[in-house]
């Protein structure tokens, strides 16, 4: 390892350097569409953590999913972590303490004025963001002007940051063949930003450098003065092409590639020198030949998953996306939800559903059926969770689109839809909701301490979500109260499960868990048969509560522990019996309610279709209208009578009746055909399918008439209308099959 060279005694030339360019505080976009990322903004699941008036959430030591996937939190868009969290370094210009000094051979350079930690944010690379055409024009212009230094950085395919005339101090970072810093792209709002970060610990007085890979931007060969032992002697040209990194650092890490692998590949390929010279490096600084020959290995750590998901979330739809996506997906597709439970949970946590939802349309566009199937297999392997993430990411629409366009994948698409239909939907808790929930508990009565009435202090308001949960656990909301839910285990707790990591102090957690348990013990409610009621907590939590309530040195006797354990078990047994009884009662009530709703719907439709009582007073029919009656009183049959399908037109007495008939006919042309697949795939009886079709047609008709009682159906069935009906039928049938399975069980 080379000895670090320090430049502590060199004069500070910052003021002098600032006179050589126009200083700007943020990038200037020469065209409005430049710099915009195709990725939508994503929220993290961190929570507010105020101390001394500062929000410490999403800091370097947190497991903030946005920070891990190179996304900055934004005050107006994050509902959970709170305003001004620690993951806003680009927005707040939280730059490291640096200065400019005069180097011996390289002009100005950047020096650290303090010790920098590994991965510390040093500076944003700021300049004018230009497109590819402008980039080439400026390259020629600067060359003709005799410019010695070029300040171009690629932001994304076909877009560059030019800091030649406008920028900040980050532009003075020099190149090194053995750099101590690296550049990374971050999503800030809807814009991509380029940041300079410490690659290793940097000592005060060290020059800050990163690898330019200048030849990738078309520069002529220049002598390199970095002075490193591995220095190649030149920047740009064929020599640098041989030695330049074959991949940007973030891609290399995600693919499991290290520098020695790159060097070995370059060395092996030098057997054919002509082939090396003709290696084409794409616009994204990716050597395709190198990536194509990579034999990637499955992820074996949470860190690997984080790196892979970070790149998958940033992939743009360009010439390299298919190659990179194929290699990256191979690193997570072999993971098994039983053997690699924690790793595959990490995929979900790091915006997995949104990531795959974004990639699938791109794969469909390029007709990459194998990649689509790989994503579907990964989705099918993901463990059970709530349906929130699936719905929010529009994955159901993506799967329906695939099923329609790629029939050979319809089986796995149906498996996914059926699997997801059994997942539960919960209301997530925002920071405002949790404050209201906590306030309602505390403000309902005054706190009494030492015989004195004390009003509730909002500063003591605890946040139930301030715990980092073990894999598989989520914090959700039920009846306005937070619960800890594990979909796979089908277990619900009213305070944190064992294995949590606290964000706030231990005493606060114990006190809050204990108080909330006592309150909810009397107010718990079970709304779904699939959820199990449980008040089980770890012995550790029991001991912690005991420590808080024991005044004798904080130690409980073995006898007291046994007594408390027996008491807890008995309470759980009673609570479980009550919950089961209540579940049965609610299930019966729900079935009765559904039956009443169905009868009411039939009554409304029958009433609408009923003729006027006095047939003799009906307005004389127009020529050509058949005078038909059914039964002795001439009443029109209800939809449940087979005669409703008669070819003879029934007399129309009101506009409402006519509208209902028209909509019934409209939906009757669509719905029965959609139910045919259930007859084939699910062995549904034809008579049952016929009755279900009739019920669905009634419901759809009622919706249309209630929405607009003057609007007739369109003359032709549009694709959009057919898709909406298809989604409704799928949802209706999923619920019907679920109810049938419950009744059967």
From TrEMBL:
Location comes to:
Chromosome; Nucleus
Give an example GO biological process: regulation of DNA-templated DNA replication initiation
Disordered as annotated region, ranges: 440-459, 613-647
GO molecular function per UniProt: histone H3K36 trimethyltransferase activity; RNA binding
Pfam families linked to this entry: AWS, SET, SRI, WW_1
| Keywords from the UniProt entry | Chromosome, Coiled coil, Methyltransferase, Nucleus, Repressor, S-adenosyl-L-methionine, Transcription, Transcription regulation, Transferase
- From the UniProt annotation, give the residues forming the signal peptide: none
Compositionally skewed regions (Polar residues) per UniProt? 446-455, 613-646
Give all residue intervals belonging to the AWS domain.
39-94
Listed under GO cellular component are: chromosome; cytosol; nucleus
What start-end ranges are recorded for coiled-coil regions in this protein?
Answer: 562-604
CDD domains per UniProt: SET_SETD2
Q: Which InterPro entries match?
A: AWS_dom, Post-SET_dom, Set2_fungi, SET2_Histone-Lys_MeTrsfase, SET_dom, SET_dom_sf, SETD2/Set2_SET, SRI
Name the catalysed reactions: L-lysyl(36)-[histone H3] + 3 S-adenosyl-L-methionine = N(6),N(6),N(6)-trimethyl-L-lysyl(36)-[histone H3] + 3 S-adenosyl-L-homocysteine + 3 H(+)
The residue ranges of the Post-SET domain are 220-236
Instruction: Give start and end of each SET domain.
Output: 96-213
Q: Which PROSITE patterns match?
A: AWS, POST_SET, SAM_MT43_SET2_1, SET
Q: What is its main location?
A: nucleus
> Under which EC number(s) is this enzyme classified?
2.1.1.359
This chain's protein is named: Histone-lysine N-methyltransferase, H3 lysine-36 specific
Whose protein is this, by species?
Henningerozyma blattae (strain ATCC 34711 / CBS 6284 / DSM 70876 / NBRC 10599 / NRRL Y-10934 / UCD 77-7) (Yeast)
